[in-house]
Amino acid sequence: MKLITRLASVALSAFVALPALSQEYSVYGDSLIGHITPCGWLREFLHRQQTGLTGHPEALSYPYNTCLWAGEIERTYESKEAKDWWRYEQTAYYTDGLLRLGYLLGDEELIKKGEDGISYTIREASPNGRLGNKKIESLWPMAVYFRAMKASYDVTHNPQIPAALEKNYLSLTVNDLVYGRRHIVNLEGLLWTYGQTRNPRLLQMAEEAYAKGGFELDAKACASDDMIRMHGVTYSEMMKIPLYLYAYTGKKDYLELALNAQRKMERDHMLPDGVQTSAEFTAGNDIDIAHETCDVTDYTWALGCFLAVTGDARWADRIEKAIFNAGPGAVTKDFGALQYFSCVNQVIATGSSDNNEYRRGKTWMQYRPVHETECCAGNVHRFMPNFASRLWMRGRDNALVCALYSPSEVSVEIDGAACHVSEETAYPFDGRIEFTFHTSRPVAFPFVFRIPEWCGKSEVTVNGKRWKRVLRAGTFVEMNRRFRSGDRVVVTLEMEPEVKMVEGQGVYVQRGPLLFARAIAAKVEEDTTVYPNMSGKRSGNAAFQCLSMTPAEPWNYGVERSRLTKENISVAVDRGRLSVGYPYDPHGVPVKISIPVRRVKWDLLNGTLNPPLPEPGTAQPISGEERIELVPYGSTTLRLTVFPVVE
Ligand SMILES: [Zn+2]
């Protein structure tokens, strides 16, 4: 009886068969968005997006308060430097985020807004099939907008979408795809369309365009061992292109190019919160350099491609690290304001605190609903909906893959049987993950889940009995079983605090996929200054304010490396808060870590800028040892994450 009630509560349409893998060389498919229901803290995060900036484009100002892609966006409010394609790039980011959010939460208003743009874009195609605004030459906005169209297709299976995309790509020449900033990124959509239509001309165009090279991260740049200094977003967008080529051709050379490009990004530019330096160019692994909020979204979008194509668990670990830390760390917890640049250490966030070389002293590190350059204010809507869209994937032989962990439910049809799995967990704040299966009849399929790379000790039980299989950290594990209603699989991942070193810079603490930071109490004031660089743009909703945050307590802490022993680090888990409340709220965090520190001589740069970490060996202690509490990085706005080492 219970099962019938449970199944009846899920929309019947959710039980469509697992979609076929259209990329024949891909291990997993990533198109289960229409089958996934986010729950728990993840649902609350998405809900805050809905009631926050994503649902309030008037607060974001231009170009988000326009018709978006359901018409022509007037060119207003833009600075002299603004490019003609900006407003379409930015609104393409925004549409992808709001449409996915709409589908994940079942919000008809958001869905309609996203779908209206897609209908208009298809209806208003040029006679030769070209999609997108006819007055702009750049093909880059369409490379982004394709993702909104794909999200729509994954839910609606509207045949007009691949048909319109096919005509669009066939209207282009190979040279169109190569010459023009980020035009090559269109290969992502072009190859997806090839997967749907099997028109051999599309695959031929993609291979020819990529072989021509000459764009910023071409095959030669991917293959070399040299450090790449380039625009962070462009790096993420382009490193996955050869991976898509591999997914449709099986040519290993393409795979190697993508893996090498990503390897170099991680080797040369990675920050502890899981996203590369990008201000806006990659700039080494100096923790004083920020990343652009766009990079949280674009890097994890690229990693999702690595995950689906290779089926390698390490990509899921990396996605989680960036999404659980860097993402929420760049927004206020009500999703009412975002930073353009965010830093792992940021002890001040005002209209003049940006310490990066680029736009130094300007508003770019401030939490604001409106930014001078609008890309991040569009891209910020995508990172969590994209993540939620990929929690569950399908694999070969009817496999159901729990690719990324978070509270959620998934409903699919497997071998003619309706199958609903609920994943109850407070992950990433806790390592216990409980899966309960409801099926319309017993059905055999491989259930695939992950033992993360950071996890030293794990255990799996099936209906209360220990599952005796070797569980290797950093791998996906396959459980082959005839699943019956009421079956329960519990995965327990031990989370121990770890002290990590950033070579030649400082130390930080993490536990499982979460980074921990000292949240610095701030004096928060509304900043009503109308900055000349904003071209008059202001939030169109008084509830969404530009904030000025200055430190209201000491933040100048350093650590003695020898004192950071296991015995000196204590973890406090408030089990009540794991299941109630919102773990990213500063006052609701369920896990705290306490460490010994000493205050050191360390001041703001020039009195107003976010200060760089003291050079190694120069942090002079000015007080004795005391203990401070660290909280999950994503719950902070002002924070100290990487501590200088007191010699
Ligand atoms: Zn941006």
Description:
This protein has 647 residues and is of the alpha+beta class. Helices cover 32% and strands 19% of the residues. The strands form five sheets. Strands 14, 15, 16, 19, 20, 21, 22 and 23 form an eight-stranded antiparallel beta sheet that branches. The N terminus is likely disordered. The site of zinc ion has 6 residues, from α15 and α17.
Question: What distinguishing features does this structure have?
Answer:
647 residues; alpha+beta; eight-stranded antiparallel sheet; seven-stranded antiparallel sheet; 19 helices; disordered N terminus; binds zinc ion
Q: Round the Cα radius of gyration to an integer and report it.
A: 24 Å
Helix-residue proportion: 25-40%
Q: Based on the structure, what is the oligomeric state of the protein chains? A: single chain
Shape: globular
Low-confidence stretches: 1-14
End-to-end separation: 66 Å
Please, what is the average pLDDT? 94
Number of strands: 23
Short description, anyone?
32% of the residues lie in helices and 19% in strands. With 647 residues, the protein is of the alpha+beta class. Zinc ion binds next to helix 15 and helix 17.
Write the layout of secondary structure elements.
Blueprint: H1 2-8, E1 36-38, H2 40-51, H3 57-60, H4 86-105, H5 108-123, H6 140-156, H7 160-170, H8 174-178, H9 187-197, H10 200-212, H11 219-223, H12 232-239, H13 241-249, H14 252-269, E2 291-292, H15 293-310, H16 313-329, E3 341-342, H17 375-379, H18 383-389, E4 392-394, E5 400-402, E6 408-414, E7 417-425, E8 432-439, E9 443-451, E10 458-462, E11 465-466, E12 475-483, E13 488-493, E14 497-502, E15 506-511, E16 514-519, E17 522-526, E18 547-551, E19 557-558, E20 570-573, H19 575-579, E21 591-600, E22 621-632, E23 639-640
Parallel strand pairs: 5-9
Antiparallel strand pairs: 1-6, 2-3, 4-5, 6-7, 7-8, 8-13, 9-12, 10-11, 10-13, 14-15, 15-16, 16-22, 16-23, 17-18, 19-21, 20-21, 21-22
Helix pairs in contact: 2-4, 4-5, 4-6, 4-18, 7-9, 9-10, 9-13, 12-15, 13-14, 15-16, 15-18
This protein binds zinc ion (ZN).
